[in-house]
Amino acid sequence: MNTAASETQATSTALPRRALLGGVGAVAATAALTACGASTDGGSEAGTADGDLAATTTAPPGPDAEVVAAVSDVPVGGAVMIEDKRLVVSQPVAGDFRAFVAICTHSGCNISGVEGDEIVCNCHGSRFRLDGTVAQGPAKRPLKARSVEARGTDLVVG
User: Fold this and answer.
1) Which among 65, 119, 143, 150 could bridge 158 via Cys, Cβ 3.0 to 4.6 Å?
2) What is the reported pTM?
């Protein structure tokens, strides 16, 4: 009788333990799949009729945002290079600040500077408008945009 009772007890405790472990495994698998799933931040690049890609913009500046320049450093209708940050910051019209990664979208060369109202890459002659769009090729895609905002007298990129 002891043998039959111990077999019944072993069977009844083993089944819930297996079910528990199976449930834990299912939860872990669901968590892993959720972490690997598609992003919902709208970060995909949209194509245009001629195959150009839209500029990519990151999320608005958050708590880890960084001051990159003073508002007064960026002329209206012009731009400035911030070489140590690999950025170009422009102000196409008063109060409208734009920031771009200072890498040409043609072949990955560093942007070489700003001439008047154009952002210039001397590698192959590409030129970009103050809004980051292509003014002259061979580049076909706009510069990659970064979020920027004026906070008091500072320009903050996040």
Assistant:
1) 65
2) 0.59
